[in-house]
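Why do we bother with holo predictions? Because pocket geometry can differ from the apo form. Keep that in mind while you read this record for magnesium ion.
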Amino acid sequence: STAPVGALRRRRVGVMGGTFDPIHNGHLVAANEVADRFDLDEVIFVPTGRPWQKLSDEQGVRQGGSTVVPVVSPAEDRYLMTVIATAANPRFSVSRVDIERQGDTYTVDTLRDLSRLHPDSDLYFITGADALSSILTWHDWEELFALARFVGVSRPGYELGAAHLGTHLETLSPDALHLIEVPALAISSTDCRDRAAQGRPVWYLVPDGVVQYINKRRLYRVPRPESRGVS
Ligand code: ATP
Ligand code: MG
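The structure, written out:
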């Protein structure tokens, strides 16, 4: 007898890493678009532990008197907002692997952990095109491409060519890296935080439950100093 067609196809799992401070509709649209285009069975959102590109929780910055302004919200708040934002979608889930690992978060560790947890799946690492170039520049890209395929999402009009990604691209298989455009979404977490700090609305930029969580926990009430490095 022949195996059912479904058995021939490996499970496809998207991995969407981010600071998610807060998660916003740009993240959700990007993840959903990639899931549709690559026929993914699941997308796992992975809030970072300590994003090495941004100042970490412990490195709060003193402003004015003695108020310590944390530059990244507590991991538990970012995790819960991500759970709230994704809970209604049966194909979306949230992983704690980065939150629970000690030290700074590196994409290669995220992918090692998730490939161990999902040995029967092909992983698709979803990232903004801006972040993609720094990930592939700073890390061991050979191991990264052995662990996952990469999908860089950009907005229409955002130029992303091989020049942004260094010179090693020619050596990759055509399946290793895909660049796709998602519908224009100028939403960023930075803008959402600035709005919350100024008492301006974040409704419709983030899911309703996330608006309510931000208010309940009084997140982003104090303006933050500029975060250093890439965003
Ligand atoms: P910040 O403004 O604090 O840098 P952010 O909006 O860039 O936050 P992150 O949590 O840093 O959000 O991003 C997680 C991932 O989502 C990154 O790969 C980023 O490039 C991507 N991303 C962020 N905003 C969008 C958007 N509007 N559309 C598509 N992808 C996005
Ligand atoms: Mg960013």
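Residues 18-21, 26-27, 30, 127-128, 130-131, 153, 182, 185, 187-190, 231 surround adenosine-5'-triphosphate (ligand 1) (CB under 6 Å).
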